[in-house]
Amino acid sequence: METKTDTKKQVLISEKSRPNKQGKKGWRWWGIVLGIITVIYLQISGLTIREDIGGRVFGQIYPSIESQTEIGYQGVIRKRWWHREWVRIVPDDCVRMIIVNDVQLDLGYLGEEKLCNWGVGFDYPLGRYLEDGENRVIVSISDIGGSYQLDIIQTPRVRNIQLLILLLVTTLIVIETKSLPLFEKLSKLERGILVLAIVLRIAYLLVTPHTVNTHDVDLHKEYIQWVANNWWIPSMADCVICHKPPLYYLLTGWLWAVISKFESNWDILQWWQLLLNLGFIYYTIKIVDSNVEDGAYKGCGAYKHRSQVATTAPRKYKRLMVLLPMLFLPSAIIHSSRISSDLQYYFLIAGTYYHYFQWTKTSLDRHLAWGLWMLLLAFLTTLTAIVYIPMWIIMFVYKSAYREYEVEKYKLSITGAATGIIAFLGYKLWQLNFQGYDLINGNIDALVEGIKVEVTGIGRYIGIHRGFMDYGINPWDKGESQYFINYALKSLVHGEFKMITDVGVLAGVGSLMQLVALIMMGIILVYMLKMKGKQWLSNMDLLLAISFPVMALIYYSFSFAYTPTSDFRYVYATLIPMLLLYVRAIMGLKRGLLAIVVRLFPMFMGIGGIMITLTRIVSR
Predict the structure, then answer these.
(1) pLDDT tens digits for range 472-506
(2) CA of 511: how far to CAs of 140, 142, 469, 492, in Å?
(3) 3-state secondary structure 497-564
(4) Which intervals of the chain are annotated as region Disordered (predicted)?
(5) 586: number of Cβ within 10 Å
(6) Which of 17, 79, 297, 463 has its CA 20 to 30 A from that of 96?
(7) pTM for the full model?
(8) Cβ 609 vs Cβ 513: under 8 Å
């Protein structure tokens, strides 16, 4: 007769004889880690100007200057043993002179054509003339008029090596994705799309210095540097944007205080921003996974709305309708590595959304607690988070009135988070009012007159300028940038930027994406207007998540009549519930050409974004 001891021995023997699959796969994870470290090393091993010592390091964005004006850049380059010798210098328009430690370098052999190649630049062995430690560098450029700029970046050869390593790392990640918790519930197609999204973000980061496509990066760096130097919170008078909540700047400043002891290249902070963006993507996937299903829509309250033809579109296609635009819109890639508090704000609001949607469906206390704590952290990151408070209050009152919810557990945690939000809001109201700042924008009066809106009245908000089909938006434009719909939708798709590489077919794709975005928003609006009582209740969770941020953006642009106040990036995370509502809206359409076209719209937005991003990466 077989005993328990014999059975246990057989189990142990079988486990010992079983091949160690984890051991065989272990080298892949080590390869992934080593590859990422190598990519980051190559990123920081390039030479860069560390600080400004008179003049501006990277020039202005939109200055208007006289023809053939010469601009002098002065800065400090701190050379370390790991820095490479060769760099690429990209002037706008021509390099006239380079002086290192009071010694003028020889540029004559390069010729006028290379020295004035503002599109590609030229390679130069700058590191050969640098001494260990700090070096004073002066670069003189000339400009024929318009904007001017100077970039010192890594050479294409190094960039190509980085992209090759990134490709190998991606291959290993694709092989190992099934063992990652994030990928467990994703189909093979969705896993591939997610990996592509991450790869495009890293590749874009590698070819885009932190001074390109930014929103006031110098002001953010000033705040971060102050924290790095003092290890505490500055007063509002210590820098231009020191009125902003401190959480992001404390975390980033402390991180920079450590990093700057070894490396002075601010580009490395883009990896921190990318990590925050990956957190935003993580919560986006969790929201999509929990709010899109086959056959039925997960509503809130006492009513659950079922689409009559929901089964005609499988769940994975509905998920792609949300994921593709969220992951691949040109604005999504641009925002993924900018140095600013926006990325931390998006991450925390996405987390707030996730727990909000989960709480509306399950009424679990832990989701209410987590959601409020993440909202508090978002509040400590930027005061814009105030626009997400009403959705919690209204939903809490609604669920309590219908006796669907009563706090049982986590009472202390929920009370603490709610008290923290109220206390911090009250403190900032007092502080900003005492100092004469505005609650939301703080120093709005510091904005220049050139971007002030001259179009007034309701026409600014319901009208669409004839330049809507022109690619991109320019805050200095006195035409279409004056209109809210033009500015908000174009900044949703492309951000506030026009790229010189986006021409021809690519510009046509970008313009068509703007039109598709307008149509999609129109479909959402029509769906909302056609809703009846029970549909309003079943969609209440999404409607609250969308309406208050959008109304706040309209109010913001109305109260402060400057073109950038219509930028969709202030409420960018709201795009998640918008796309979820779009999916609910189009699933009610019967089979036919129209149903096919509107379901392809989100797919087109994602594919168009991939085309534009790949072109930008290759052309740099």
Answers:
(1) 887 777 777 888 888 889 989 988 776 655 667 78
(2) 38, 34, 5, 13
(3) CCCCCCCCHHHHHHHHHHHHHHHHHHHHHHHHHCCCHHHHHHCHHHHHHHHHHHHHHHHHHHHCCEHH
(4) 1-23
(5) 23
(6) 79
(7) 0.78
(8) yes
Pairing of strands 87-92, 69-79: unpaired
- Separation CA 231–CA 254 (nearest Å): 7
CA distance 85 to 106: 16
DSSP string, 84-96: -S-EEEEEESEEE
Say how far apart CA 13 and CA 17 lie, in whole Å: 6
Helix (H, G, I), strand (E, B) or coil at 617: helix
Angle between helical axes of 315-328 and 575-586 (0-180°, round to 10): 150
**Cβ contacts of 283 within 8 Å, gap of 6 or more:** 347, 350, 351, 353, 354
| CB proximity list for 216: less than 8 A, separation 6 or greater | 241, 340
Q: How far apart are CA 526 and CA 589, in angstroms?
A: 13
Integer Cα distance of 209 and 59 in angstroms: 14
Sign of CA dihedral 178, 184, 190, 196: negative
Q: Please, what is the end-to-end C-alpha distance for the chain in angstroms?
A: 75
Nearest C-alpha neighbor of 194 from the set 314, 292, 319: 319
Burial class (CB in 10 A: 0-12, 13-18, 19+), 7: exposed
Residue 404 phi, psi dihedral angles, 5° rounding: -90, -10
Check pLDDT > 90 for residue 154.
no
**Tokens 């594919």, residue?**
607
DSSP 401-438: HTT-----S-HHHHHHHHHHHHHHHHHHHHHHHHHT-B
Sheet with 69-79: list strands edge to edge. Answer: 51-52, 69-79, 133-143, 94-100, 103-104
Please tell me whether residue 341 adopts helix, strand or coil conformation.
coil
Per-residue pLDDT reduced to its tens digit, 42-58: 666 666 655 443 333 33
Query: Residue 343: what residue type?
Result: L
Domain spans in the chain, listed from the N-terminal domain onward: 25-46+158-207, 51-153, 217-619
d(CA 107, CA 28) in angstroms, rounded, equals: 46
Question: What values do phi and psi take at 563, rounded to 5?
Answer: -55, -40
CA nearest to 126, candidates 94, 161, 92, 154:
154
Encoded amino acid at 375, one letter: L
Model pLDDT, residue 293: 66
Token code pair at residue 301: 């309250």
Q: What is the pLDDT of residues 98-150, one digit of tens each?
A: 888 888 888 888 888 888 877 678 888 888 888 888 888 888 888 776 556 67
Please confirm whether the linkage preceding 477 is cis (ω < 30° from 0).
no
Give, for 399, the enclosing helix (H) or strand (E): helix 389-401
How far is it, in rounded angstroms, from Cα 195 to Cα 170? 7
- Give me the CATH topology for the region 51-153: Jelly Rolls (2.60.120)
User: Which among 73, 35, 33, 38 has a CA at the least distance from the CA of 56?
Assistant: 73
Q: Which residues, 6+ apart, have CB-to-CB distance to 33 below 8 Å? A: none
